[in-house]
Amino acid sequence: MSPVATIATDATDPATVVAFQGAPGAYSHLACREALPDLVPLPCASFEDAFAAVRDGKAACGLIPIENSTAGRVADIHQLLPEGGLFITAEHFLRVRHQLLAPKSASLKTVKRVYSHVQGLSQCRKVIKELGLEAIVASDTAGSAKDVSERNSNEEAAIASSIAGELYGLQVLRPDIEDNHTNTTRFIKLERQRRDPAVDAPNSLTAIMFRVRSVPAALYKALGGFATNGVNVVKLESYLSDGFQVAEFYAEIEGHPAQKNVDLALQELQYFSSSLNVIGVFTAHPFRSQD
């Protein structure tokens, strides 16, 4: 069996397994292959299942998408992180390259319909229009490739990843058909234990989740400690929980919690917060420093 087709089973050593959400051939599968090539991918039906696979010891880690440069943040992840019992230990950026896939008997002249997830279709509008294809929404990209392969019609194509084409025996009719050639998805690696880099290691990031107290200007005051201590906040997102009653925040800051200025900033944040959790300390991916 080729490395591409290798999928974790009950007999696979959990220490060699990385869990991801989606079907074999999904972009998360491709990210696992790219970021963690020595581990065996384990497809999971939902994000909850992927978290559980890591938490229950069925996988050494998980690789989960958290945001996309075109579509924004991935739904559900911020709700799962606080109570998931896992820690962010690394990040990976995947350039999303959509492939127009079809059976071996098909060509650009014979294809009439194209299937994919709604976002896959929306991100490839120009080519779909150029080729005059009927766009049909399916549940996911990899599943579209699988279905097109099984039906084996030279009038059908799918928009999916290169690994989906390899898995399901489809040819690439046209590569890299996405409208936006900077389309990128950010993934986080999740493990059961924190794996903080050394205090003096360069390019450390600290991920935190917190709730501020219900007092006027609480968020302003809570974040003030980062400014006064020279700590750069590189990401701050809010979302509602508890029936729209409570605002929670996810943030990423530059630096290590053991560094004095970061520690002081977190102490000030703690003073104005009803809860504060460090959910990971990790090294920034080199993608961040690209021009």
UniProtKB/TrEMBL annotation:
Pfam families listed in its UniProt record: PDT
Catalytic reaction list: prephenate + H(+) = 3-phenylpyruvate + CO2 + H2O
GO annotation, biological process: L-phenylalanine biosynthetic process
Organism superkingdom: Bacteria
Annotated SUPFAM superfamilies: ACT-like (SSF55021), Periplasmic binding protein-like II (SSF53850)
EC number: 4.2.1.51
Keyword Plastid: no
Species: Ferrovibrio terrae
Biological or metabolic pathway of the protein: Amino-acid biosynthesis; L-phenylalanine biosynthesis; phenylpyruvate from prephenate: step 1/1
Name of the protein described by the UniProt record: prephenate dehydratase
GO cellular component labels: cytoplasm
Gene Ontology MF: a single term: prephenate dehydratase activity
Residue span(s) of domain ACT: 207-281
